[in-house]
Amino acid sequence: MGVTERVTAGKGWAAFGRALLAAVCLQAVLLGPAGASVDFLTLGQDRGPVAMASSLEFWLDGQGHTPVEKIEAGADTLPFAAVKIGQPHLLDNGALWLRFDALVQSPQLHWKIEMPESGIDKITMYYRDSLGRWVVQQAGDSQAISSWPQPGRYPILSLSHEVGQKVRYYLRVEHARIPFSALPHAVTDEQVTTARQREHLLLGAYFGLAALITVLALINAAAYRDWGFATYAIYMAALAGSQGAFTGVTGLYVWPELPALNNMAVVLLPLTAAAAALWFVRTVITPKRFSRALDWLIVALMALLPLVALVDAAFPTAESFALINILISSSMVILLMVVGVAMFEGDRHARWIALGFLPIIVAALFPLLRNYSLLASGFLTQNALILGSAIEAPILFYALLRRVTQRHEPKMRAVTLRTTDPLTGLGSSKLLTSKLQRALRTAERYQQPCALLIINLSNLATLQQQHGREAGDRAMVLAASRIQALAPATDTVARVGDSHFAWLMEGPVTSESVNHVATKILTSGLRPS
Question: 103, 386 in Cβ contact below 8 A?
């Protein structure tokens, strides 16, 4: 029995050893030499864009001081590894080296490398020409746009024009504080032109919408003397400015030769927009009604956000960048808290404010998650805020219009009652007098006669005696609607007494036309109701 147990145990250990050896061999296959899993990049007649992930290898230079000559000399000794799509790299003061081999097969196509992410501090591409000399191209936010190989919102670098010859390329990426996970792809000149036209069309539509909303908000702020529209205009302007910085539009068109402003704007403008958003919400929601502590917290954040942005602009550090992300996240939470409390308390405008801010808050999660190294760079991290802002802007504008209309409704009603009869909705005696004076002056000046008809409900007193005051009021309203239906838009119908209406016929009229109108009024009055 003991021998059987030893044999069984021996077989078990042997099976475990074989499984462990298989796992080690599998790991060696998967994580073996970097070059074994990297494909050769062949650029033929396929116009792309061509994904390059399978052709790229990377190495992190922790100090960022290694020159390209040492990188080339240590090609077989440096620990280059195959890239993983979506893998973030925290570079700080270091540099990310990417290398790939490419072969251009068609002389008709001019290929380029596109790094589809704006805001990269600096990217440098090296390769040797047919004479063995280094060809160097640089782009990025630390460079003036005029020094880029091809000016644009993000780096575009040209590959070698040599056809049918394998060329090794080295890309050096410097990108402090923000995790870097973007990967380049190969494109042709034609694709670059087409993509740029499409991008400029969409970006132009967004910034045009933002400008229009801002101007309309300022006009309404002046017309209604409303601080809600004023703070909304400030918020929209700051948000559009931050999107210009994020997308590289400001660096390309506003300050192309002042690269030092790029990194400052990427921090200063978004924090200003966040502070403006809090100011806007505080203005339209008035959180002081619910909690003084919450109101003071908003005021403190409104002051702290621009202050931290200015300090970071002067002394940028990884710690200050982490603080900025925390403050923006906190601002989003507090904004939602304020709007949520207002909705709970029954604020009739809060639900529209919440609906308006929902797209931008969801969109802001993508760059925030990227900054926290929880999400790779991609289309949404680059463009979600623009999409969210484009949805947010008209919703908030509509919410403000509802708010200001309801606030001014009593005043507008009071103004309307001066010239409108409250029972029938027709003009008042005051309105008729004003219109009659103007019509008489016009008739005298241009020799164009006008007419004034007086309509009397002769049986109104009898109706009120037999059926009460309410029945009499209904009869007045019915008569007013029938008379108004007969009158053209250029004439004026007014109530001038308890049972009397007046119809002012302006313009050239004749006795026949007046008699015809009077007949129509009598006929309408005889119709059963």
Answer: no
Q: Which residues contact 55 (CB under 8 A, 6 or more apart)?
A: 38, 39, 40, 41, 100, 101, 102
In the sheet where 500-505 sits, what is the strand order? 451-456, 500-505, 492-495
pLDDT in tens, 250-298: 999 999 999 999 999 999 999 999 999 999 999 999 999 888 999 999 9
Cβ atoms within 10 Å of 394's Cβ, excluding its own: 12
User: Would you kindly state where each structural domain of the chain is located, as residue ranges?
Assistant: 1-29, 34-191, 226-416, 429-526
Exposure b/e, 465-482, CB count within 10 A at least 16 = b = eeeeeeebeebbeebbeb
Cβ neighbours of residue 300 closer than 8 Å, sequence gap 6 or more:
none
Q: Do domains 34-191 and 429-526 have the same CATH topology?
A: no
How far is the C-alpha of 172 from the C-alpha of 155, rounded, in Å? 12
Give counts: helices (H), strands (E), the chain.
14, 14
Angle between helices 189-224 and 379-417 (to 10 degrees): 30
Peptide bond into 49 cis (omega under 30): yes
At the topology level, CATH places domain 34-191 in Immunoglobulin-like (2.60.40)
CB atoms within 10 A of CB 158: 15
Angle at 288 between CA 283 and CA 289, to 5 degrees: 105
Q: In this predicted model, what pLDDT tens digit does every residue of 60-96 receive, in sequence order? A: 998 989 999 999 998 888 999 999 998 999 998 899 9
Phi and psi torsions of 514, nearest 5°: -70, -45
Degrees (nearest 5) of the Cα angle 209, 214, 219?
Answer: 125
429-526: CATH architecture: 2-Layer Sandwich (3.30)
492: DSSP letter? E
Predicted TM-score (pTM) of this structure: 0.76
pLDDT digits (tens, 9 = 90+) for 200-218: 999 999 999 999 999 999 9
